[in-house]
From TrEMBL:
UniProt xrefs under NCBIfam families: PRK00823.1-2
Source organism (scientific name): Haloferax elongans ATCC BAA-1513
Pfam families with a match to the protein in the record: Pterin_4a (PF01329)
Similarity-based family: Belongs to the pterin-4-alpha-carbinolamine dehydratase family.
GO MF entries: 4-alpha-hydroxytetrahydrobiopterin dehydratase activity
Catalytic activity of the protein: (4aS,6R)-4a-hydroxy-L-erythro-5,6,7,8-tetrahydrobiopterin = (6R)-L-erythro-6,7-dihydrobiopterin + H2O
A Gene Ontology BP annotation from the UniProt entry: tetrahydrobiopterin biosynthetic process
Protein name, per record: 4a-hydroxytetrahydrobiopterin dehydratase
Keywords: Lyase
EC assignment: 4.2.1.96
Amino acid sequence: MAEVLSPDEVDRQLGAGWERDDDEIVRVYEFDDYLDGVAFAASVGEVAEEEFHHPEITIRYEAVEVRLTSHEEGGITEKDLRLADLFDDEF
Ligand SMILES: C[C@H](O)[C@H](O)[C@H]1CNC2=NC(N)=NC(=O)C2=N1
């Protein structure tokens, strides 16, 4: 089981556009077109299923919010940081 990272460690490793929110990391991706956001959310879902580590995805008009935490571990782990990088590659 991955270890829960300290807030400072998370902040040190967070990629651009990501923020720590309590025991989650979050990024809001913005789009010019609603359906581009829908397609992005689907690609995030594909990556999550491949990695078997699943975010909370909220699709809004021209924006998609992605939240990650490691439920089993009860906090933010390297798995969340790695998935964040993989999701950024889809953007
Ligand atoms: C049984 C448990 O739900 C699974 O092992 C996986 C599924 N996807 C998951 N996703 C996330 N974000 N955290 C988990 O702990 C997790 N666990």
